[in-house]
């Protein structure tokens, strides 16, 4: 086997084993080592938040942004855990000497913890024949303690200090790969546990204290340096709520929502608890009112609860979390402050309990489901919100009923719209308020929904869009306690006119309407139904003479086929077209009509549609400036339109087809004895046509190939393969455009 292949396989196996046995913390340290590889062996790159002593083995996201918690971070290069420098040599080429747990504290510079272990007489307990893990507070962590707490530690001949250190010690060796998220381990302090969380960003916390230097293996265990002194945990979230008088309002709300008992059970929760002062900021009597509405109070309380433990020190950038209510909140950080939905509102963080963590906040969080629908409108719908208020639509909405708002985006309100008379605009906007609450998932094609004005809007469901009349919805739907909000990209246009009336009133479809009447399709435009019409304007027929139009009308069957190629069964709104692909609409003629949405405009049969979505009670009209023909290999020029019309007409009859190419004159006659059909037109040649294959010749044996074309006025006979005046009869041939 190739040596290089063997080496690659060996490296692959090693990497795979590393991935299996490593943790998120270990991977982040490995990445930090890779980032610092130019600094020498066993060097790790860390990020330090400017203006503080906080350092992180950071994620790719923080590394590339050059910041942590929104604050600029500088890069530091230090020896990776377990390694040290040698004077005169690059990097950290030496493995740190291994010592017992007590001696290792000096190596990791946790000298205050080492000192306190001496003073409290704990050294003897951790130096015996045992294996222990010590979560050692850094020197800075001890400095963060309140002076009164420090004095307390010295009471009873350092007994409090001894108990505190014992609480940081576990009677087994643990390294970060053993520390699974949600792990609970008993400490050497009787009846007390440590609650470990291991996050995807590599942060590991112990009772919400972050491990800042981990995996320093000792002869009798392991040492992990943490960023704070941790306290024993007693009680669950429910106990904290009931014991704290300043949290009585939220406790009352949680009880009304039947959630208090859940917070007294085992689990892994994060609860953002508004203080009583936060509830005092709400309108007078608000809490009392919503407590009577079980759905609203339940939604409000659950919106403050996460089904995971999110310690403050694990948050390095904004991340979205799903709440128990079902919607999401963003938890982030701004320097040392924890933020919720981008707002600095956390008064006290990381109150650790046996079933989770509490963060106290100074604002009540409101999910959409606990808001009035008028409160759901955001800045992108501010124009509609202003009109809604100015025209006092709220007074027309009954308090105990549910509604749906179709809120147009601000860009919809152009100068033209703003110039509409106020009374007319009010009628128009009333059609954006439905008298029923309806979510996107409840809509279906054919559904009719009544508006505040009394009109009914039709729903249309497409592959990638949901539309009401001509207005299709954009991302951002919300549901409130008394209704739903959907954002739309255009004003809703309703119509009380039939397709016939729309076409007639527009005044530019006279020829099309005349042809529809000749073809016997007039009534379709007036009757109930659901049609999409690509209607050619009068200008689309300007290349045709009166003689051409007479020819077009002379064969009703052929004319009907041409017209039905412009009509599709069903209502297709321009906003319902899928972008980036060709949308095939089956016409009533039977063939598919290729429609695209290109550069913010509709294009049918490669022809632009200048005006779309003229709504009617029985369909929709899209304006086209060309007569549409079934697609071939090429498009024939305007000067050959008559020829193409005749081709199309011939397709609908059993005929013998003859074409004089020089004069572009088409001659045809009915076939009596045989039933030939023109099976395929693939190419049109102005000069020297090549006849590739004869499909059928009438009244004689089939001719397989025509090898020459003779110019002149010769007649086609049973015994001849010659064709006069470029005469092509009943066979497959090719055509091309100029």
TrEMBL record:
The keyword Coiled coil does not apply. One of its GO terms (cellular component) is extracellular space. Residues 97-230, 234-365, 368-492, 496-628 form the FAS1 domain. Residues 40-94 form the EMI domain. GO terms for molecular function: cell adhesion molecule binding. Keywords: Disulfide bond, Signal. GO terms for biological process: cell adhesion; extracellular matrix organization. The keyword Signal applies. SMART domains: FAS1 (SM00554). It holds the Pfam family Fasciclin. Residues 1-22 form the signal peptide. PANTHER family: PERIOSTIN, PERIOSTIN-RELATED. This is Periostin, osteoblast specific factor a. It comes from Oryzias sinensis.
């Amino acid at each position: 086997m190739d040596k290089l292949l063997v080496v690659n396989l060996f490296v692959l196996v090693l990497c795979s084993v590393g991935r299996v046995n490593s943790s998120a913390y270990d991977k982040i340290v490995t990445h930090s080592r890779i980032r610092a590889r130019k600094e020498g062996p066993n060097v790790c790159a860390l990020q330090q938040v400017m203006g503080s002593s906080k350092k992180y083995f950071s994620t790719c996201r923080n590394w590339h942004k050059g910041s942590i918690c929104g604050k600029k971070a500088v890069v530091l290069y230090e020896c990776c855990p377990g390694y040290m420098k040698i004077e005169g040599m690059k990097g950290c080429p030496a493995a740190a000497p291994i010592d017992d747990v007590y001696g290792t504290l000096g190596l990791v510079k946790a000298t205050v913890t080492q000192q306190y272990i001496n003073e409290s007489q704990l050294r003897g307990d951790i130096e015996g024949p045992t294996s222990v893990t010590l979560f050692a507070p850094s020197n800075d962590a001890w400095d963060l303690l309140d002076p009164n707490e420090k004095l307390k530690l010295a009471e009873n001949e350092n007994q409090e200090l001894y108990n505190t250190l014992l609480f940081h010690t576990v009677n087994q060796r643990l390294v970060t790969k053993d520390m699974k998220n949600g792990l609970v381990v008993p400490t050497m302090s009787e009846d007390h546990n440590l609650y470990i969380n291991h996050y995807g960003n590599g942060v590991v916390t112990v009772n919400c204290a972050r491990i800042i230097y981990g995996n320093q293996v000792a002869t009798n265990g392991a040492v992990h340096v943490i960023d704070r002194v941790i306290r024993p945990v007693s009680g669950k979230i429910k106990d904290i709520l009931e014991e704290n008088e300043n949290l009585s309002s939220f406790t009352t709300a949680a009880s009304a929502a039947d959630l208090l008992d859940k917070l007294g059970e085992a689990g892994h929760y994060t609860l953002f608890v508004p203080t009583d002062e936060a509830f005092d900021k709400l309108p007078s009597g608000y809490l009392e009112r919503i407590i009577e509405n079980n759905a609203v109070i339940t939604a409000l309380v659950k919106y403050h609860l996460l089904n995971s433990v999110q310690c403050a020190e694990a948050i390095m950038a904004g991340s979205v979390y799903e709440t128990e209510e079902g919607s999401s909140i963003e938890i982030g950080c701004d320097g040392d402050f924890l933020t919720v939905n981008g707002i600095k509102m956390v008064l006290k963080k990381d109150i650790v309990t046996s079933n989770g963590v509490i963060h106290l906040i100074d604002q009540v969080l409101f999910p959409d489901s606990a808001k009035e629908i008028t409160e759901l409108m955001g800045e992108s719908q501010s124009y509609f919100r202003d009109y809604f208020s100015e025209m006092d639509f709220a007074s027309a909405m009954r308090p105990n009923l549910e509604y749906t708002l179709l809120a147009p985006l601000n860009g919809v309100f152009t100068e033209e719209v703003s110039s509409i008379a106020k009374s007319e605009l009010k009628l128009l906007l009333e059609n954006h308020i439905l008298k029923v609450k309806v979510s996107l998932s409840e809509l279906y094609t054919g559904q009719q929904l009544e508006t505040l004005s009394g009109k009914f809007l039709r729903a249309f469901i497409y592959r990638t869009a949901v539309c009401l009349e001509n207005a299709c919805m954009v991302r951002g739907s919300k549901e409130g306690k008394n209704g739903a909000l959907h954002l739309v990209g255009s004003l809703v246009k309703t119509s009380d006119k039939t397709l016939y009336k729309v076409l007639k009133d527009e005044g530019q479809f006279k020829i099309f309407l005349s042809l529809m009447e000749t073809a016997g399709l007039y009534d379709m435009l007036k009757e109930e139904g659901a049609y999409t019409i690509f209607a050619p304007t009068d200008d689309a027929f300007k290349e045709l003479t009166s003689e051409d139009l007479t020819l077009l009308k002379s064969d009703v069957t052929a004319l009907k086929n041409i017209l039905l190629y412009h009509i599709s069964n069903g209502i297709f709104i321009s906003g319902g077209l899928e972008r980036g692909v060709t949308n095939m609409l089956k016409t009533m003629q039977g063939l598919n009509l290729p429609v695209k949405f290109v550069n913010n405009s509709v294009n049918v049969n490669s022809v632009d549609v200048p005006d779309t979505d003229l709504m009617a009670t029985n369909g929709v009209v899209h304006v086209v400036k060309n007569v549409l023909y079934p697609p071939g290999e090429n498009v024939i020029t305007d000067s050959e339109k008559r020829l193409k019309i005749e081709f199309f007409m011939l397709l609908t009859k059993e005929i013998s087809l003859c074409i004089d190419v020089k004069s572009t004159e088409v001659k045809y006659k009915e076939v009596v004895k045989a039933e030939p059909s023109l099976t395929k037109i693939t190419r049109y040649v102005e000069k020297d046509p090549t006849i590739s294959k004869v499909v059928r010749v009438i009244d004689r044996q089939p001719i397989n190939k025509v090898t020459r074309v003779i110019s002149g006025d010769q007649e086609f006979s049973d015994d001849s393969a010659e064709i006069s005046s470029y005469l092509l009869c009943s066979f497959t041939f090719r055509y091309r455009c100029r």
